[in-house]
Amino acid sequence: NVTSNFEMTVTDITHLQPAELNQELFDNVFGKDVVKTEEEYFAKLREMIAHQLVPESDYKFSIDARAAIEKAVGEFDLPDAFLKRWVLATNENLTVETLEADYSKMIADLKWQLIKDKIAKANDTKIETSDIEEYAKKITKAQFAQYGMVGMDDELVANYAKDMLKKEETLKGIIEKVAENKVFDIVKANVKLETKEISIEDFNKMFEN
Questions:
Q1: What is the reported pLDDT for 193?
Q2: What is the pLDDT of residue 147?
Q3: Binned average pLDDT, 10 residues per bin, the chain of 209 residues
Q4: 20: part of which helix (H) or strand (E)?
Q5: Helical H runs in 13-153?
Q6: pLDDT given for residue 1 in this prediction
Q7: What pLDDT does 91 receive?
Q8: Torsion angles phi and psi, residue 117, rounded to 5
Q9: Residue 8 neighbours by CB under 8 Å, 6+ apart
Q10: Residues 178, 134: contact at Cβ < 8 Å?
Q11: Which of 4, 41, 5 is nearest to 22 (CA)?
């Protein structure tokens, strides 16, 4: 609905072009004198990309491991009527209709939680404060990296992580994730892993479903 007249003046025109493979580029990407040749530069890039793909590899392992463990455990019954009453009583905003629609997924997650607790207890798993703080810093670094902010000062990362842990819901989520990661570490240490090297295209295809 704006009917006013406007006048614009172009003050700047920018465009992207490939950088030259020289020391200026190497220093901008990895820091002063970290790499000094094209060979070192591309080796460092491969190392960085491989490191970035580790979380995705671990995530794929967690999906496959959960499916295998649930299959090995098999089906077991839970008191559905009681659980539905309990969920409704502890979630004021939840309606009976929503509960019925989501109950199958909720019960699957609850069964998985019981299995994880069993594994953790059998292996005397403990969650230390340092585990929580380290995971919070890991999340913080990942968030910075999304905006191209890598190599951030450790003190700055630690302060952001501390602020993150002040939120009760965030703290709860991190504790649950740390606990689950410890369970998968136990599983990984007790199974025979078959490691494969594949292309990035095939790697991405594994997540399509």
A1: 87
A2: 76
A3: 88 92 90 91 89 86 92 90 88 85 88 93 92 91 78 83 90 92 93 87 85
A4: none
A5: 23-30, 38-73, 80-90, 96-122, 129-146
A6: 80
A7: 84
A8: -60, -40
A9: none
A10: no
A11: 41
Residue 105 φ/ψ, nearest 5 degrees: -70, -40
**What sign results for the dihedral spanned by CA atoms 196, 201, 202, 206?**
positive
Largest CA distance in the chain: 73
pLDDT at res. 88: 86
Question: Which two structure tokens, joined as six digits, stand for 134?
Answer: 């380290």
d(CA 94, CA 77): 24
Other Cβ atoms less than 10 A from the Cβ of 138: the count is 14
Nearest residue to 46 via CA among 70, 60, 62, 30 = 30
Cα–Cα distance for residue pair 26/121, rounded to 1 Å: 49
User: Residue 56's pLDDT is what?
Assistant: 87
In degrees, rounded to 5, the angle at the alpha carbon of residue 151 between the alpha carbons of residues 147 and 45 is 85
End-to-end CA distance of the chain: 45
Length of the chain: 209
What element of type H or E holds 207?
none
The pLDDT of residue 42 is 94
Within 10 A of 161 (CB to CB), how many other CB atoms are there?
Answer: 20
pLDDT of the residue at 78:
87
Joined tokens for residue 98: 């929503």
Long-range contacts made by residues 72-78, C-beta under 8 angstroms, separation at least 24?
73/115, 76/111, 78/107, 78/110, 78/111
Place of tokens 């369970």: 183
Q: Which two tokens stand for residue 142?
A: 């990942």
